Amino acid sequence: MHQPAITELAAADPEIAGLVEQEAKRQYEKIRLIASENYVSTAVLEATGTVLTNKYSEGYAGKRYYEGQQLVDPIENLAIERAKSVFGVEHANVQPYSGSPANLAVYLAFLQPGETVMGMALPAGGHLTHGWNVSATGKWFRSVAYGVRKDTGLVDLDEVRELALAERPKLIWCGGTAIPRTIDYPAFAEIANEVGAVLVADIAHIAGLIAGGAHPSPVGHAPVISTTTHKTLRGPRGAMLMSTAEHAKALDKAVFPGLQGGPHNHTTAAIAVALGEAGKPEFSAYAHAIVANAKALAEALVERGFDLVSGGTDNHLILIDLTNKGIAGKPAAKALDRAGIELNYNSVPFDPRKPFDPSGLRLGTAAITTRGLGTEHMAKVAEWIDQTVQAENAGDEATVERIAGEIRELLDGYPMPGWA
C-alpha cells in the first residue's frame, strides 16, 4: 500500500485513492528508466503533503505581503541556505513553480522581447525553453540554435563560438534535456565572455550529479544556473534559480512579482528536505552509482548492437537511435512499457522522423539506482530491452509478458519509498 498511508483520502474519495494506490503499485513493479523521473524519500513525500499548502506567502522572507509568515520564512530560508551550501552559490531562489517558469524568469531578468538568445536545438538535445520555435521563448525572442556534429554526436564548440560571434546573443544557454555527455562549462563561459552574453547553465537533469560530485559544476563559469528539484536531485516537482550576487535582484524580481504570486510552501519545505539529503555523504555515493549504472547499461546495450548517440554516456542519460533495429521509438517504448520497462520515445540528432514518432529512446538510471539496483543488474536490463524490441518486431507478446513477470520478481527484492 501507499506510504504514508492515505486512509483519509480513501474514506473521502475512494476513486482517487484507488488510482493513487494503483500508481504506487505500478511504480513498484516497473523498471523506471525515464531520465527525468525518480523516487523521492518518504520524508520528502510527507513534507509535500503538509498543512503548509494552506498558507499564502507572496513576497520573500522578511518582505511578505500577507501576515502569518513566522514559520514559513524560516522554512524558505532553510531551503535557500541548503541550496547555497550544496551547490556553492552566492544566491538561490527556491520559489519557481517548475523548470519552464524558472527559465522564463531568466528571460525576463535579462532580455527584452525580440533580443537574441542562443541555445541548443531541441532535436540535438536542448530544451523547449532554450529558444525553440514552438515555445514562447522562440516566439518572443530572436532565437539562434546550435547543435551537435553528425559524426560524433558532440557539440562542436568552435562552431558555437563562430555562431555566437556572428549573432551576438545577449543570453546563451548550455545544458538540455537529452545530453548524455559532460558539459564543458569553461569553454561555454569563454565564448559568452567573448561576445558579452550572460551564460545560463540549465542543470535540471544533472543537478543531483553535480550535488554529489559526479559531474563538473557550472559554478564559477555560469553566473546564472537554472534547475528543477526532482530528476537526479530526488526532490519534489519544483525548481530553483541560482546565481552570483550580482544577478540576485534581477532574478528575484523576475520570479516575483514578474511571473508568479505566492510560492508553494509545501513544495519549498520538501525542497529543503531534499537538499538536506543531498548534503549527506551517502548522497554522493548515490550520485556516483547513477553514473556507474548508466555506463554499465550503455556498454551492455552496445554489446547487443544498439546504436547510442555519441557512443555512450558520461552521466545518467542514454539516447538510443533504433534505426538499425528496424523499429521506431514509439512502438518500442510502448512494448517496453508492457514488458515492465518504462522509458520514453525521443528524437535523435538529425532524426528524419517526426517528433511524435521519432527514431530514438531516452533512458536514465536515477530511479533504478534509488531502488538499489547496481552495475551487476545492467546486463540483464539490456537483455530485457533487446528481447522486448525483438519480440515487438516479431509480434511475440508472450515474450513481452514473460519479461514483465521476471521484472516484477526481481523488483520484489528492492524496496521503494512510497510503497510498502
TrEMBL record:
UniProt keyword list: Amino-acid biosynthesis, Cytoplasm, Methyltransferase, One-carbon metabolism, Pyridoxal phosphate, Transferase
Q: Which domain of life is it from?
A: Bacteria
One term of GO molecular function: glycine hydroxymethyltransferase activity
Q: Which Gene3D superfamilies match?
A: Aspartate Aminotransferase, domain 1 (3.90.1150.10), Type I PLP-dependent aspartate aminotransferase-like (Major domain) (3.40.640.10)
Pfam families in the cross-refs: SHMT (PF00464)
Quaternary form? Answer: Homodimer.
Q: What is this protein called?
A: Serine hydroxymethyltransferase
Q: Which organism is it from?
A: Kibdelosporangium phytohabitans
